[in-house]
Structures are given as structure tokens and as C-alpha cells.
Amino acid sequence: MADTPVEYIKHHLQNLTYGKLEAGYERFDGSVMSESGWTFARTAQEAADMGFMAIHVDTLGWSIAMGVLFLGLFRFVAKRVTTGVPGGLQNLVEVTVEFIENLVKDGFHARNPLIAPLALTIFVWILLMNVLKLIPVDYIPTIAHAMGLEYFKIVPTTDPNATFGMSIGVFLLIIFYSLKVKGVTGFAKELGMQPFNHWALIPVNLVLEILVLIVKPISLALRLFGNMYAGEVVFILIALLPLWAQWTLNVPWAIFHILVIPLQAFIFTMLTIVYLAAAHEDH
Amino acid sequence: MNINLTLIGQSIAFAIFVWFCVKYVWPPITAAMEARQKKIADGLSAADRASLDLELAQEKAAQQMQQAKEEAAVLIDQANKRAAQIVEASKDDARKEGEKLIEQARAEIQQERVQARDALRTEVALLAIAGAEKILETSVDAKAHSEMLDKLAAQL
């Protein structure tokens, strides 16, 4: 574990990375890799040096766990669903489903059976991943450390890989439906002939529109990541305070996050719906 | 904060979760919700219909009640009239019967009077004859003097 505050913060913001180190790489303890191979990074430097060929085991593990929890819960209800008086759990699920259904109904006017379940998945999944943030910052890393894992960051949405992973999925859907609904020429026209409807300005339009298109997934991912990451940093900073003083800041900040957590999940969901609605609009 | 394979892993997980949700989670839940909505809507409309029916039935019942009252009033009226008629008629009958009885009695009295008079007359004639016989000390031949006796009787 870390000693100085800076090390403590850095330690808490480092993912558990399992990646490939090339042959000849000098490890943290001075040993040299005799041949390239996959291993857990023991320092931040090692994690960075692994480059793209690495996996954040904690991010993937917790996000998949939350996704499985979400789908398991909802599938459990879906199997036992009754049209009569619903029980508590079914009520909770139905409220969520109805909430998403209304969002989609209001924001999305084309017919596409994928959009509403997609929005539900995004909303509940992000919500569950964000909720992990309310677990005190030292609990899980301490347990992980006891199990011999150097780093452990449990909130997947504080990892840009997770948020970008989702926003890229949304981005691909935007491209796919733009092409499907408008056709290749329609989509090209939309990119080239807007906002200035003149042939001479096609290059300008292209630059503008492609920028607009690419900004969509980036803004989606960075907004969620930024909010969650910043919140996490503040939680870690608060954790540096003396024990008796922590609650004075920790409690208000956690209460504030009860608002932030669903809000960020909602914004991601809402923007996904809006972007996909725009992709379905034929001019 | 390094971008690495996690990105792709997350995208794949995302795709799988969305697929599962589209296929196995969303349809049954929304179907059940729609079915319940329909059930509730049906129930509400049935309740509306029932209350309308009730109103109609009440109206009809009130109408029938009114009609029954009117009919009863008419019947009572008729019965009263009929009773009055019967009383009147029986009074009439009684009067007639009484008059008839009085008439009969009168006739009988008259008859008896005539009979009594006749008997008296005969008796008086006989008495007269007896008296005459006493006076004449002879018997009167009833046959020979019947004409005279009849005249006498007629004068009495």
C-alpha cells in the first residue's frame, strides 16, 4: 500500500492491470523478463508500459458482474411476471421499464424495437456501476490487497475504457442506423450538405458534420467518466483526512452522489436516445 | 487511465447485455404490463357500463313503480264506484222488495176483508132467514126464496 498522500491517491486511481510485457523488460524489483508474457502489473509504470495489450481486470470484472446482476434480476422477474397484482420486485422492475419506455416514447418517434431495451440496459447498468462508488474507497482495495492484488478499483465508470466501450457501441449504432434509414447517399448528403446547402461548401460541411458526429461518443464517455472520476478523487481526498473528521465531508459528498449517480446514468441514457433518434430522422 | 483491451472487452460485454435484454428481458415484462393495462382499461369500462346500467334500471324501476301506483289508484277508484253502485242497487232492491211485500200484504188484507164480508153477508142472510123463520114460524124454502135472499145479501 502507499505511504504519502500522493502515492495513496495514485494507488487508488490505478486499475488492476493484466497485460503483456515484452521480453527484456525490467520489472519493478529489478528482475528482467526472460521472454514476453502476460502478467499482473505491480506498478503504475508497468501498467502504462503494457500499452494496449492489457486488460483492467477490476473494471471488466465489476462491470460484467453488475451487468449480470442487472440481467439476472430482470430476467428473474421477467420469468415470473404476472399480469395481476405485481409484487415488490416486479413493481421495481416495472417502474424502471416504464420510466425508460416513457423516455423513449417522448424522445424517439421512429419504430425500432432495439432502442428501448438498449436504453434500459444502459440506464440500469451504468446506475449499478456508479452505485459501487458509495462503497467506502478503502474497503475493497484492502480486501484485494490481503488477497495479494496490488491495485483494485471497483467503480468501472471511473475507467475511461468502460465509458468509451459503451459510447463506442452507441456510436456504431448511430452509424448503422444512419446508413440503414437514410441509405449511403442520404447519410453522405446529410454530412455534406448541412448546414450550408451549397456544393462549394461541401468540405466545410463535411468537417463540421463529422466533427459533430465524432463528438457524440466522446462527450458521452467523457461526461460520465469525468463526473465519476472527479467524484472518486474527492472521496479519496476525504479519506486522507483524520478519521474523526472524515464524516463531516464524506457524508454530504455521498448524499450528493445519490443525486449524481442516477443523474449521470440518466444523461447517458437520454443522450443515447436523442442521438439514435437523430440517426433515424430522414430529412 | 490507460486505454487498452478493456475498451474492446467492455464493448463486447455491452453488446451481449443489450442483446440479452432485447431478447429475454424486455418483451415479457412489457407484454405483461400491456396485458395488465388492457385488463384495467376493460375493468374500468365495465364498471362504467355497470353504473350506467344501474342508473337505467333505477329509472325503469321508478317508472314501473309510478305506473303501478297509477294503476292501483284507478283500480281503487273503480272498486269504490262499483261498491257504491252495489250499495245503491241493493238499496233499490230492498225498497222494491219492501214495496212488493207491502202490496202483497195489502192485497191479502183486501181479500180477507172481501171474504170476511162475504161470509158475514151469508151469515147475516142466514140469520135473517132464521129470524124470519122465527117470526113466521115456518121454514122458508131456501130454494124458492133464493132470489130474494140473494137480493138481500147484495144489499148488505
UniProtKB/TrEMBL annotation, chain B:
UniProt keyword annotations, A-Z: ATP synthesis, Cell membrane, CF(0), Coiled coil, Hydrogen ion transport, Ion transport, Membrane, Transmembrane, Transmembrane helix, Transport
Membrane-topology descriptor: Single-pass membrane protein
Domain of life per record: Bacteria
Annotated function: Component of the F(0) channel, it forms part of the peripheral stalk, linking F(1) to F(0). The b'-subunit is a diverged and duplicated form of b found in plants and photosynthetic bacteria.
Subunit structure: F-type ATPases have 2 components, F(1) - the catalytic core - and F(0) - the membrane proton channel. F(1) has five subunits: alpha(3), beta(3), gamma(1), delta(1), epsilon(1). F(0) has four main subunits: a(1), b(2) and c(10-14). The alpha and beta chains form an alternating ring which encloses part of the gamma chain. F(1) is attached to F(0) by a central stalk formed by the gamma and epsilon chains, while a peripheral stalk is formed by the delta and b chains.
PANTHER family, sorted: ATP SYNTHASE SUBUNIT B, ATP SYNTHASE SUBUNIT B', CHLOROPLASTIC
Stated family: Belongs to the ATPase B chain family.
Name this protein carries in UniProt: ATP synthase subunit b
